[in-house]
Amino acid sequence: MSDVVLSVRVQIPGPFRPLTGQKSSIVVEQHRTVGEVLKALEARFPRVVPHLRDADGTLRSMINVYVGDEDIRFLEGEATRLKTDCEIAIVPSIAGGES
Amino acid sequence: MSCETTKMEESDGLSMARDVWLGIRSHGTSGYPLEVVGALVGSADRRRVRSYLPLENEFDGSRHNRYAVGPEAWRRIEKQLHQQGDELVGFYHTHPDHPAQYSEVDRDRALPNLSYIILSVVDGEAQQMCCWQLREDRSAMDAQYLYVENES
Question: pLDDT category, B150, cuts 50, 70, 90?
């Protein structure tokens, strides 16, 4: 039996929408893990890549990814396997300061 | 360095209601000597700030020179603004006893397509307020004209 997920919706945070054709969510199909879905998103909208990933390809520390209400850091990270019709949300943190 | 202006000089500047300008300055001085942070709320085109939303500085360390707002707060803000029909224009934070110039940390942590206001607070008094926007390649932040509306 195929374990390929049929469709997953990815919620796009406001600051990234100008980079995704103003779409607030994207449906991605035929992927099994969070990482595969993000890679598909990045291939479709490459302008988001510098804001999602560090130079070594890892997710930036300010970028949090949720499957439903669960942060993937507490699951299997980008290897987290998905279920059909689940929802992924890209949720930024913000930070800064004078030093 | 003068950042606020009384007239729009560039087509990509940001305008702000005067009571918002005053409110941010008040929030900044009330939090001194710690950094304070808040959200800028406004129009869908992100060109005008009509209100502000003070936030808790969640940084787990020295809040004298750092701030942080976690993803749960982000989700609450997005939900609230969506219900109000508002948009997130950007964020503001203070630099206690430090210029309103963005730091390397500010640049590294910035998100695209948002305006970042930095307010310098020196000896407890609000000083310069400057507005910055991250370049798409993340290499630097560009100064954005900040127009404070006159009282009607």
Answer: confident
In this structure, the dihedral spanned by the alpha carbons of residues A91, B27, B107 and B66, taken in order and rounded to 10 degrees, is -90
Global pTM reads 0.92
3-state helix, strand, coil in chain B (%, to 5): 20, 40, 40
Chain A's closest residue to B91, CA to CA, is A94
**Averaged over B83-98, what is the pLDDT?**
95
Interface predicted TM-score (ipTM) of this complex, two decimals: 0.90
Question: Per DSSP, what are the bridge partners of residue A67?
Answer: A70, A88
Nearest CA in chain A to B45: A18
In single-letter form, the type of residue at position A68 comes to G
Report d(CA A79, CA A72) in Å as an integer: 9
Backbone angles phi, psi at B67, to 5 degrees: -140, 160
Whether B78 is a known active-site residue: answer no
